[in-house]
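Example record used in the benchmark description.
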Amino acid sequence: IADFVAGLLRENRSILVVLNTKGMVNRLFDALKPLLPADCHLFCLTTYLCQQHRGDVLNRITKRLEDGQPLVCISTQLIEAGVDLSFDCVVRDLAGLPSIAQAAGRCNRHGETDCRPVYLIECAGENLDKLPEIYDGREITRTLLAQLPGDADLLSPQVMEMYYQRYY
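Model output (structure tokens):
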């Protein structure tokens, strides 16, 4: 994943990576740090940070985005709601469709450019034993991905309805 994200910097100034667990965020942060160019800042957002520190990090991210400086932000799902940031590219660990939609909403959020890429990945060795809602959502999404045609719009009302019928 670190190599993939580093490669995305060739075509994107700002990248958001949303993973399901704090442990995976920390592992990717450590793996990605030596791969980034010196002018690219790497940010980490999890609930390991207190609220004040998270706010400070979000302010620094906002400033770099406004200034057009390169950055990568690796976060848990805490960035998916209530955060008004717009990245050139989003990478989302496989999760439930509502989480994927929220993460996608951080990509080209203000319509600065044409449509931008959102990638779905799956972290090997991720332990979701203590996060059953995320596990269940991920498994339903995995099933839908296997059943839908390759050109299906995952965030269409019809697919979302299928997701929720299976979830509930």
